[in-house]
Amino acid sequence: MPDKLLKNAANTTEPSFEIQRIYVKDLSYEAPNTPHTFSDEWKPEVQLNLETKSNRIQDNIHEVVLSVTATVGSNKKSAFLVEVHQAGIFSISGFPNDQLHQMLGSFCPNILFPYAREVISDLVVRGGFPQLILAPVNFDALYAQHQEEQKGSKTETGEGKVH
Predict the structure, then answer these.
(1) Count of domains in the chain?
(2) CATH code of 44's domain
(3) Is the Cβ–Cβ distance between 5 and 80 less than 8 Å?
(4) What is the structure's pLDDT at 24?
(5) Three-state SS string across 51-81, please?
(6) Which of 8, 123, 140, 144 is most buried when burial is the number of CB atoms within 10 A of its CB?
(7) Cα–Cα distance measured from residue 66 to residue 85, given in angstroms and rounded to the nearest whole number
């Protein structure tokens, strides 16, 4: 009887999540109107763009890339643009597909964002501008919103309809 229990336990796949590596995949900084920007009154207007992508590297190993672009202007002139593609390699196994997609689209970007935020802040200061500290982002809400938009577009095109 104990041998049978051990075999059953070995056949069940426990959900597993592990961070393999976190790294900067791409980085860009532009300050097109310097040095004139430094002599103008500083009235920053920040525009933030976020995007996530994921790809399977091999079974249960995924790369997730969080792209953060901050475009900052002052007095209707471009001050600087900074973009970072913060990436991570994650080992994820034993999760149903819907949970896997949520982990790739929400959980992993939540892990990557503080790293991207630090890179952006450091780069902006090195560019001679006041520190730019990005507010926290609710990736769970963004993921849910994206899922709703996907459902809506499938219904509009006739896909996903129940006949």
Answers:
(1) 1
(2) 3.10.420.10
(3) no
(4) 98
(5) EEEEEEEECCEEEEEEEEEEEEEECCEEEEE
(6) 123
(7) 6
Residue 160 host element (H or E): none
140: left (phi over 0), alpha (psi -120 to 50) or beta: alpha
Q: Is residue 2 part of a domain?
A: no
Question: Shortest CA distance to 63 belongs to which of 25, 119, 99, 114?
Answer: 25
Q: Is residue 104 a contact partner of residue 62, using CB atoms and an 8 Å limit?
A: yes
Say how far apart CA 116 and CA 109 lie, in whole Å: 10
Round to whole Å and give the CA distance between 69 and 2: 57
Q: Which helix (H) or strand (E) holds 132?
A: none
pLDDT value at 136 more than 90 = yes
Backbone angles phi, psi at 70, to 5 degrees: -115, 120
DSSP string across 9-33: HHHS---EEEEEEEEEEEEEEE-TT
The answer to the question of residue 122 being in a domain is: yes
- In which region does residue 75 sit, left (phi positive, over 0), alpha (psi from -120 to 50) or beta (all else)? left
